[in-house]
Amino acid sequence: xxxxxxxxxxxxxxxxxxxxxxxxxxxxxxxxxxxxxxxxxxxxxxxxxxxxxxxxxxxxxxxxxxxxxxxxxxxxxxxxxxxxxxxxxxxxxxxxxxxxxxxxxxxxxxxxxxxxxxxxxxxxxxxxxxxxxxxxxxxxxxxxxxxxxxxxxxxxxxxxxxxxxxxxxxxxxxxxxxxxxxxxxxxxxxxxxxxxxxxxxx
Amino acid sequence: xxxxxxxxxxxxxxxxxxxxxxxxxxxxxxxxxxxxxxxxxxxxxxxxxxxxxxxxxxxxxxxxxxxxxxxxxxxxxxxxxxxxxxxxxxxxxxxxxxxxxxxxxxxxxxxxxxxxxxxxxxxxxxxxxxxxxxxxxxxxxxxxxxxxxxxxxxxxxxxxxxxxxxxxxxxxxxxxxxxxxxxxxxxxxxxxxxxxxxxxxx
Amino acid sequence: xxxxxxxxxxxxxxxxxxxxxxxxxxxxxxxxxxxxxxxxxxxxxxxxxxxxxxxxxxxxxxxxxxxxxxxxxxxxxxxxxxxxxxxxxxxxxxxxxxxxxxxxxxxxxxxxxxxxxxxxxxxxxxxxxxxxxxxxxxxxxxxxxxxxxxxxxxxxxxxxxxxxxxxxxxxxxxxxxxxxxxxxxxxxxxxxxxxxxxxxxx
Amino acid sequence: xxxxxxxxxxxxxxxxxxxxxxxxxxxxxxxxxxxxxxxxxxxxxxxxxxxxxxxxxxxxxxxxxxxxxxxxxxxxxxxxxxxxxxxxxxxxxxxxxxxxxxxxxxxxxxxxxxxxxxxxxxxxxxxxxxxxxxxxxxxxxxxxxxxxxxxxxxxxxxxxxxxxxxxxxxxxxxxxxxxxxxxxxxxxxxxxxxxxxxxxxx
DNA sequence: GATGAATGAGACTTCATTCAT
DNA sequence: CATGAATGAAGTCTCATTCAT
Lengths: 202, 202, 202, 202
Hints:
Chain A is mainly α.
């Protein structure tokens, strides 16, 4: 069955292209990114990319989808074994921190797609956002079930939590804070979410 | 005194270029934006732009600075006459909503600069972010002075407020909510800031 | 004797490739025609074509030869059973009409080879033209033998007859006339050949 | 008035591009022709062509129109001062001979457009054909007026004359005859037109 | 023999920038 | 100062051909 080997090779190559594409797109943005460079980095011929992706746009979109799956998986896995709401939200925060620093390529690509100008890219990035919100809403609902929280609009609350969590991480990073420094803010941010600004970080 | 008239003309042309540049850059992003189109829209010759700006990059940067000033002014003016902390934060939120919808061009440009890949653009956008934070820090400090708030790290708090406020507006917009719908969330968002999630919107 | 079967298979495949090549070349011209498409249409693998033909050029040339044989056979068969010169020339004309409409693919390919730019293609097409002329010369000679015609330079006459006959058909088709309309001109054209313009079509 | 100079320069450059384009297209055909080469030959930058023509297709079409005008002018001028029908038709024939040899580039381009596969090119070439027919029809009508000819369908007759004249020249050239040799056939061809094959060339 | 994945040369076209007018 | 014609670098994508399976 050479088919399986081929299938595997094919998938491996696809992954390699996507990985290099993410790096190139993150470094230069969609327009300035160079298909030739991506091919070179992936160790394949210029034309070969077009055997795996329709065109540059398709490559970008496929890469975006791949990244989204990875991120969602990363976020999900983080939350798996935790118990109380405070802890869960802190884990969520730390998951974003880790992504922002260790997968900064894909995070940058995702953000530029979200706030960029290409409608299709934006739509794909928005889909990831909805997935995030769904996960957070689930956390909040369980918190409500456990009596840790009383909240009349879970959707809005989830959006607020996402905005605060993700955006704080990104902004802090942009302002030059290190991964460690930001991680240390986890409790404070969750305090804000649960009890508001005035509450001191005990 | 023809000098003054010339100066005025020059400044007016500069403004016109920047305005059209903002529209074009917002529509297409930095790379895909076309200098020719900008010149045409501004009613000047193709080469004339280079009498006002070094090159495309410089034009983008200048536009970014101009936008930043406008935004800061818009945010500042909104907060001028208000008194209590809750109100002030709600006004801040609404100011962001207005910018996100009525100056969506410049807002998009700003966001793509912030999360984009060009270091110089990012730096400029970051400077705007610091200005936002300074304004918010001021508000919070006055709130503390007035006993409306107790907060041990004003800087971190300001960053949280900015993240939540701005990011909520943008995310909600991206998710398809209307200006009105988002505005109605003002109180809820400020409630979260001041008292945390559990507090019901009274 | 598997050899014969294989030979037959091989020949059949060759024919199939040539048939599809004719269609593709007629549709797109030599350069724009796509080897892949031809292979697909012929129901074989992309690489297989190169087991039958050296390269694209060779395929085109082989196809041209095949077409030429078919055309000559078509023209010959048409003239087989006819008797008097007038009739024979009319049949010739109608044979061209039929080819131009029912084998328009190959006719177009032939014309573009004849007036195209590739020397080798042109030579091949010229060979077909010589065959046509030989056939027409034969007709004229028999006409002369039968006393239906007096003509001092058969070669030149044959070329004139070919030019008029074939070119009239093609031009009329290009100008939008239908197969029927052109067929109805058969007598008129032959009248011109035999008696000149002034003679009315009786 | 630098405008006039500019206008002249512009027109001169346009002509130069078209001339080189004709040569390149005649040499290689539409697809294989190279825009870069044309630019080089015309002594201008690669991008400059696109200031004069939309794209390759537009360049080809413009060149085709230019050629058509030149040919029509050439044919017309030839017929200007002649008197009797026989002479006129001989002049027409010789005009085609001259074009086929001295403007062989444009003639080849025209024929490949006429029998090629691109609809737009074909349409343009067909327009030239109609112009030819109109001119010939005029000649025949005057011949009829002068009693040199009796002919019930001038249009069909004109098409026959064109087919025979032009196609004879082209076919003879393709068969390797020289300009002189073909020119010597002028009388014979016109004899055929006027009196049919049997009439000896007196 | 048959296949089709991989290759890379090559072409069109765009557009920021320059510079003569 | 203003202009816009000219430039040419650079990039995406196609496709004939090869070769390992």
